[in-house]
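assembly run, all chains below
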Amino acid sequence: MRLRDELTAQGKAAREAAQILASLSAEIKNKVLAAMADELESRKDLIIAANRQDLTAGEQAGLSTALLDRLELNDRRISAMAQGLRELAALPDPVGEIVEMQRRPNGLMIGKMRVPLGVVGMIYEARPNVTIDAAGLCFKSGNAVILRGGSEAINSNKILVQAAVGVLERFGLPAAAIQLVSSTDREAVSILLGMHEYLDVLIPRGGAGLIQRVINEARVPVIQTGIGNCHIYVDQSADLDMALRIVDNAKTSRPGVCNAVETLLVHREQAAVFLPRLFALFEGRVELRGCPKARSILPQIKAADESDWHAEYLDYILAVKVVDSFEEAIKHINTYGTMHSEAIVTNDYSNSQRFLREVDAAAVYINASTRFTDGNQFGMGAEIGISTQKLHARGPMGLKELTTIKYVIYGQGQVRE
Amino acid sequence: MRLRDELTAQGKAAREAAQILASLSAEIKNKVLAAMADELESRKDLIIAANRQDLTAGEQAGLSTALLDRLELNDRRISAMAQGLRELAALPDPVGEIVEMQRRPNGLMIGKMRVPLGVVGMIYEARPNVTIDAAGLCFKSGNAVILRGGSEAINSNKILVQAAVGVLERFGLPAAAIQLVSSTDREAVSILLGMHEYLDVLIPRGGAGLIQRVINEARVPVIQTGIGNCHIYVDQSADLDMALRIVDNAKTSRPGVCNAVETLLVHREQAAVFLPRLFALFEGRVELRGCPKARSILPQIKAADESDWHAEYLDYILAVKVVDSFEEAIKHINTYGTMHSEAIVTNDYSNSQRFLREVDAAAVYINASTRFTDGNQFGMGAEIGISTQKLHARGPMGLKELTTIKYVIYGQGQVRE
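ok done. output:
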């Protein structure tokens, strides 16, 4: 019960802070972001020391090398966080913009004013840089934020939030604008998931287990992010050199991220030529797992089973399926995909257009790597996550996606007949 | 279990139908809508006979006159439904539009294509006209719909859906595009609320009890609609004639709807003149319930208590509070309002702008009646509901709000560095 009271108090304080944040000018917000960036850099040593505690505890707890790497903060990474805040300061402020103002026949002027969502909850895992990214994005978009990072990063997160809050206070702004859930108890997540009075939206960012828990338990509106079982389909008319470049990039440039490709679909007319070239390119780097037809061309690779079509490997593994037709490719993608990023390599005009229309995903590509699904690459600056759901925001979520609208109506005494 | 199987089968069929609907041309959709309109008119007698069964059962069950009135279909109302479908046919098709197409420095062309949500679930109460409105809006926006109307209207809803589905079949379209839940069991609602595999969004439309149940139980993304505890604030500088006209319109033109005013706030400097004029205007028509200050001016009115500030009367009752300042008015609205429609009557420029910015609601008015919050009045044609939440859609939801976007990316072989 004490934990619930504590979180409720944080929720209430966030609500109040949100009212003040909503009316801050871009000028103030940008100064605060710049000051936060300076603060992080000047506290570098303290941050690294706190992070060192997390790393030591993590090593003792037997975290994997990959997880420890995500957890680690060093000089370069702290500078990158600070740089991220400075870039946020340079982005246009979405709040207050009025769009689609129209004059109705009765003289009413009706427009949509962009306003903050209010209070954003973030639940994420071991990467402490998310703490500063999320705090910065929410602050710039006029939202209060309640952060619940992974328990492995608790010391790092505490000192990062402390630094940010110190700056808020120096500017006379409410500390509750950026709050960290200090308990690492799993129960805290359950409580947050039920706090619909205080949270306007909850954004989970992490593995499939976290996302699934949030979907099952949440009473708060949720934006699902980040699960990416992405496909590339090499069509009958594909330029095979281009296809190889794109598959290579989408698989190996950063296999641990959600926009990396996980399954390759190849038209049967191309398979006999393309698959041996792919095998040669990936030999010793990427494990291929194939359907029976793929293995009839590459008998040396492992067999893929049903679970491979569902898998988000996040690793140097690629499932390979030979399809008889364009339609079979689309059907496979719409069956097994997670509606994240899907690409076709083709030189057929009609197939390219059909692919765009018929594939149901946040980002659908013709002749480009799925790796571009990213706020920065899409020109919106930083992102708080990549939505794989259809409501409110789809694809990379930047500042604008952290706002909503309200209708503003200017009258001169109009009444309705 | 049989009911769950039945609904799951409906969900699956809706998913499949949605794929076909998503790629229909506006031309076909508009022809189908026009044919549905004709079909309703030609089946008028059958529809009225089925509705008569519902009315008889409702009378026997002791439904209130107001409910029976909402339930009733007659010649005029059926024509209005048909007319609604014809108007939908005349509206632009939102599906397929590509907006914000940009050319990135690397040559990628990135835009947002408007696409249907997929499968929409509607849970509503006794008004059978919602069945046709919702079916038409979902069809035009390329969505399949599963309708769960109030049990009181089951015979009316069945024959209306039958008529619509007959037209779908005549055009060779899947009957599952428009489905009615045939069970009137309450359990059906619980099952729908958990069907996140098959429903992309659920829109409850009805009283506070229904909305609350949906918020508590839903595993499916929900758009809350329609609870309206709306306020009008008569500012110190208000034109009192205008204020009277606006309050009269907002309270009495249709008191049973969500955009009717429920609480009046009056600045203390205006109260002594305004309240007696209001009392005279409303005498015998609208019951006033006042705060102590209001009753010191109008001792003959009832006292308002805390529950009155929360009440959505939907009736000829108005709560009245005298406030000491503009700030107190804003605070009252943001405390008790349901974020639907809020209005100020003022001639003070600075207060008018602050009201727009500081009041947190779907629609915020200066010098106009709250009754305008309506899809038609806002120029978007028909509406499927009025969202009082912040995610995805806020305010009246028309065709565009029944769509989402996907990013479409045209490349020439780009890979990410």
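The longest strand of chain B covers residues 403-414.

The longest helix of chain B spans residues 2-22.

not gonna interpret more than that til we talk
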